[in-house]
Design brief:
Four copies of one chain form a homotetramer. Helices cover 77% and strands 0% of the residues of chain A.
């Protein structure tokens, strides 16, 4: 049982619906993706061909910022109105898609981009599954 | 001339289009709104009737997170594709609208909520004007 | 092998020293602690006795902010000069200590505070072990 | 009267001491410095000689993260114990010093680095003055 699961289980506002599982998965995927993207941005900055990785660095930084904000807002589980959550998770899925595609272009040359592309894809999926369940 | 204006003017990727003005205004409004919302959340936590301000605290925290992420992504001005920017600015406008409306309910009792509601409205406008210009 | 481990392994600036293990552990602990503290703040806000949990909410929010900033800066592994890293990790350990102690006071009544106190303690340890290794 | 000043004035926990002015100045300086550093990182990424600006990009990103976290924690004005605030503001001053020095090296070639160095210096001063007043 993950700590996020434990926290959601003991949260006084636990909705009890089937949404919980998707919510937990999305919070965890966002946390992982933010971490990996921050690391990938820095790894790209350390590569000799950094000049060709500038778009990748920017995509990494954007994606890390989106994932962190999404993780935080999802943790707040604002009751009732899901308009904000929906709009933000959509934007986050978009950031993950863009970053994943960009990283994939360098995945054969830079292994960190390969690992990052995978994390982005996992997070994009988790976002889309949560969106479908809301 | 604000520092943000100076920075955009000296940025090598300056687009030179009319978008610049809206972009600058939105970055500045997001920065201000994030600051004010963080302060409002804490002021609400310090009020005697904190139990009635819980929704307001959450809206403040959500809005601060959205504004910070939006400010950061806008500062990166990812060239070409505006899909992410558009989705994020829409989500940010939504966070500002929700927080502004919630703060307004307590504006007569708590002056910090009045100041915050104003900042949220300014930021929502800046977001919508940028969206229209993109 | 965790994704953070994979990312550090494939980072062009991998130092190869024994520091790597402590660095990875600290990045991961910060990520977990930030997540848990954000969730604990919201869970506290949802409790009936929220008025008595205000100090805990603030400590949670402070700790989440410190852990996120620390995770990001550690991921950048600024070469050579460790002055900033040292100062920040010290501040992070302090935030974890304060939040852990505050959560512990409510741990018997609120299980989320118990889970959070544990995460804070793990993160404080990871910070102190990294400090000792730098 | 700035919005931060208005918010601190209407905060129920206003300390009324002379610290208020330094606190406000530091919150505002951190907000400005975070904004400018994020913009400078991206401007550096857009320069032709990006390969020579990698250390500057990293310093910018570190400084932006420190300034944001500091702004948030200062806004929470945790009562009583200033241990965390002190440690964090120290770390923030260090990040500003490092980033300011790094930006200054490129200030003659890149005007955005010049503007950023100035913002870092202002923020470092605001941090040190708050530290002296605590």
């Amino acid at each position: 049982m993950s700590v996020v699961e434990q926290m959601l289980d003991t949260h006084p506002g636990n909705r009890g619906f089937g949404v919980e599982g998707k919510l937990r998965a999305c919070i965890e995927a966002c946390g992982e993706c933010a971490q990996v993207c921050t690391l990938c941005a820095d790894a790209c900055l350390g590569e000799r061909d950094v000049a060709e990785l500038v778009t990748c660095v920017r995509a990494d930084l954007d994606c890390a910022d989106l994932c962190e904000a999404t993780q935080r807002v999802l943790s707040r589980r604002t009751e009732g109105d899901d308009t904000l959550v929906r709009a933000l998770v959509k934007a986050c899925a978009e950031a993950c898609r863009m970053c994943g595609e960009e990283c994939e272009r360098h995945a054969s040359r830079h292994e960190h981009c390969w690992v990052c592309a995978e994390a982005c894809r996992r997070c994009e999926s988790a976002c889309r599954e949560l969106l479908a369940a809301l």
